[in-house]
Design a protein that fits this description.
The protein is an alpha/beta fold and about 425 residues long. The protein has helices spanning about 25-35, 50-60, 100-115, 145-150, 155-170, 185-200, 220-230, 250-255, 260-275, 295-310, 315-335, 340-355, 370-375; strands spanning about 40-45, 65-70, 90-95, 135-140, 175-180, 205.
C-alpha cells in the first residue's frame, strides 16, 4: 500500500493537559487510516506521553517522532489581552533527530518547569537553548511563535533579529512554519514569512496544529479550553481554535497548500531526518545516602526494627512475635527485589512532613499491607490487625515497582 505524501508534525495528544483531545491509540489509528508513514507528537511543554507514543507507533509500523512545543519567554511585544493574566509564552516546536537531541530535549523541558515563575506556563528564555540544541530540528512556531507574533505586531526588524538567533541555534535545522487554519493572523503574516524564508534560503514546512480527531469534536474541545481557562463560552477574549485544528488527510493538506507544494514535501523530508526511538529501560531508583559503612539493607532493618518496637511498646512478647516474623520476611523480600532505598526515601519525606506538622494520610491501597511500611511510619494501619496481605504490594513472582498511595494536605503539599 502506498503511503500518504504528507505527515503531521504538530499533533497534541491528551498529554497536552486540558488542551489536546486525542489519545495515543486513537492517534495511531488515525495515522493507519490515512496511510501516514510517520507522525510527530509535540505536546505543550512536556514529554509525558513520549515513550508510550513511541512504543505504540512502532508496534503499528508507524515511525514515531518525539517532539515538544516549548514555551519561550517573551522579551518584547504586547502582553496579555486579559487583565491580571500573564501573556502566554511564544511557541517553538522542536523534533528529536538523535539520542543527543532527545537528551537535550529532556534537559530543556525540565529547565522550563524548574526555572519559571510560580503560576506561569513552563517556559525558557531563548538564550537557555544555547548548548542544548544539537540533535533537534526546530520550527518557527507559526503565528504564535516569536517570529509570527512580532510580524503580527508590526515589529519586522525585531522578527528578523529573532530569526537570526534561531538560525545560530539550529544551523541547517530550522524551518519556517506555515499554518492555514483560517485565522486572520495567519493570512496577515504569511507573505512576510515567505519573504524571510526566501531571502535567507530557509526551508518551509506546512503544518496543521492538531488538537482533536475530526470536526465533530470541535464543540467539545472548545468547552475543554473554557474549563482550562476558567471562562464561559461567550467570553470574547478567551482563547479559541477553529474546526480546522483537526487531523487532516494528506490529500486535504496537499489541496490546502497547493501553491506551496515544497512546504508539504518537506514534512516527509523532516520525517526522514528524524531517526530516534526511545529505548525501554528499567526504572532507575535514586540511592538512599546511608551512614558511612552501612548499606541500604542494614539501615532499613535498623530503622524498621526500631519503628516496630515503638509500635508494639506495651504489648505482651507473645503478641509481638507474629509482627517480628512478618517484618523479617518482608525485609528479605524488599532487599532481594532491590527496593530498600525506595522504602527509606519514602519514609524520609513522610517523616519530614509529619515533623513540619503537615497532615499526612494513614495510607491507602496495597502498601497498607506492609509491616515494614507501618514500622517506618509510611502508613498508620496495623496490617496484621486488619488481615492485610504484603504480597498484594510486593511479590517476587511478579516483579513490579512498589507504589505507595500517599495523601498530603492540599494546602501544604508543595512544601513536601
Amino acid at each position: 500500500m502506498t503511503h500518504a505524501d504528507f505527515v503531521h508534525l504538530r499533533v497534541h495528544s491528551a498529554y497536552s493537559l486540558s488542551e489536546g483531545a486525542i489519545k495515543i491509540k486513537q492517534l495511531i489509528e488515525l495515522c493507519r487510516r490515512n496511510a501516514m508513514p510517520a507522525v510527530a507528537v509535540t505536546d505543550s511543554g512536556n514529554l509525558f506521553g513520549a515513550f508510550q507514543f513511541a512504543q505504540a507507533a512502532a508496534e503499528a509500523g508507524i515511525q514515531p517522532i518525539v517532539g515538544c512545543r516549548l514555551g519561550l519567554r517573551r522579551e518584547n511585544g504586547e502582553g496579555s489581552s486579559r487583565p491580571g493574566v500573564r501573556p502566554a509564552p511564544d511557541q517553538l516546536v522542536v523534533l528529536v533527530q538523535s539520542e543527543i537531541g532527545y537528551l537535550n530535549l529532556l534537559r530543556l523541558v525540565s529547565k522550563s518547569f524548574l526555572e519559571g515563575e510560580p503560576g506561569e506556563a513552563p517556559q525558557l528564555a531563548l538564550a537557555a537553548l544555547a548548548g542544548m540544541s544539537e540533535g533537534l530540528i526546530a520550527f518557527t512556531g507559526g503565528p504564535h511563535g516569536p517570529i509570527g507574533r512580532l510580524l503580527a505586531e508590526g515589529q519586522d526588524e525585531a522578527a528578523a533579529g529573532q530569526l537570526s538567533e534561531l538560525e545560530k541555534l539550529f544551523p541547517g535545522r530550522l524551518y519556517i512554519e506555515l499554518m492555514r487554519h483560517g485565522l486572520a493572523i495567519e493570512r496577515l503574516i504569511e507573505g512576510r514569512l515567505l519573504d524571510l524564508a526566501y531571502a535567507r534560503n530557509l526551508p518551509l514546512i506546512a503544518t496543521n496544529e492538531v488538537f482533536f480527531a475530526d470536526a465533530t469534536m470541535y464543540g467539545a474541545h472548545d468547552a475543554l479550553l473554557c474549563i482550562a481557562q476558567g471562562v464561559v463560552l461567550g467570553d470574547e477574549k478567551r482563547r479559541r481554535v477553529t474546526a480546522e485544528h483537526r487531523f487532516k488527510s494528506g490529500a486535504e493538506m496537499r489541496a490546502l497548500f497547493a501553491d506551496l507544494p515544497e512546504a508539504v514535501d518537506n514534512t516527509l523530508t523532516v520525517a526522514r531526518r528524524c531517526a530516534y526511538m526511545p529505548a525501554a529501560r528499567k526504572p532507575i531508583l535514586p540511592p538512599f545516602i546511608a551512614e558511612e559503612g552501612m548499606s541500604e539493607a542494614e539501615v532499613l532493618r535498623r530503622q524498621a526494627e526500631a519503628g516496630l518496637a515503638r509500635r508494639l511498646a506495651g504489648r505482651e512478647p507473645g503478641a509481638q512475635q507474629p509482627y517480628r516474623q512478618r517484618l523479617d520476611y518482608e525485609i528479605e523480600v524488599i532487599v532481594q527485589m532491590g527496593f530498600a532505598g525506595y522504602f527509606l526515601i519514602v519514609a524520609d519525606f513522610i517523616g519530614w512532613a509529619k515533623e513540619q506538622r503537615i497532615p499526612v494520610g494513614p495510607g491507602r491501597g496495597s502498601g497498607a499491607g506492609s509491616v515494614v511500611a507501618w514500622s517506618l511510619g509510611i502508613t498508620d494501619l496495623d496490617p496484621l490487625r486488619w488481615g492485610l496481605l504484603f504480597e498484594r504490594f510486593l511479590n517476587p513472582e511478579r516483579v513490579s515497582m512498589p507504589d505507595f498511595d500517599i495523601d498530603f494536605c492540599q494546602e501544604r503539599r508543595d512544601e513536601v
